[in-house]
TrEMBL record:
SMART domains per UniProt: AAA
Protein name: ATP-binding cassette domain-containing protein
Keywords: ATP-binding, Nucleotide-binding, Transport
Domain (ABC transporter) ranges: 11-249
Example GO molecular function: ATP hydrolysis activity
Transmembrane feature ranges: none
InterPro entries: AAA+_ATPase, ABC_transporter-like_ATP-bd, ABC_transporter-like_CS, P-loop_NTPase
Amino acid sequence: MPGTPEAEAVIRVRDLAARFDGRTIFEHVTFDVRRGEVFVILGGSGCGKSTLLKHMIGLYAPAEGSIEILGVRMDGLDGAARVALLRRIGVMWQSGALFGSSTLAENIGVPLEEHTDLPAEARDMVARVKLGLVGLADAAGRLPAEISGGMAKRAGIARAMALDPPILFLDEPSAGLDPITSAGLDALIRQLARDLGTTFVVVTHELQSILAIGDRCIMLDKEAKGMIAEGDPRRLRDESRNPVVRAFFRREVLA
């Protein structure tokens, strides 16, 4: 079953370190992401969550260690091989990163135009299907300025799904959303993971979202410069003996 211990690991991170200008952000980070699960990278501000995500999608090169995605190691990958691997992942950035002068359908069509030979009519049809999957079937012709922040996040997910990647990376999907809109986005992520079998890697520090969507998680800590916990977020909340982990999940201030 997807997300179970028996499921295949589609991402393998081994002894990863990130350093910039001689400063260590994190080191000795090792974990697997299993096919079909919603995997959450969590932690407080400045712990390196987004930095880890950028390493995983190939924007940053590791100072040490390795990252393997779908059986292919990221380090040293370039040219056509790199493009082929990147086509198999989708990314939604915190802002949605939509092109303001293009309609939602046109935004979703950008990856299709860049990476496929589909004619314009077919690209538009695919875009409308993807928008339908995220509940925006009636908004295909609207501009980003004409939609809400929650709709922009959904459109960003639709664009990340344009090429049918088996893995989606979401950077702070709930950031800036009210609780009701955030809960709706959480439900969408769970539904897509269940219905499509997509693997999600989600970076967030929003506690409600972590508990609502996460099958498993890792927790990074700024002071430890690395991982301090891994597992089911609900079990970490209820059973962890690490005072930093307990404080995070219980919203307590450490003495």
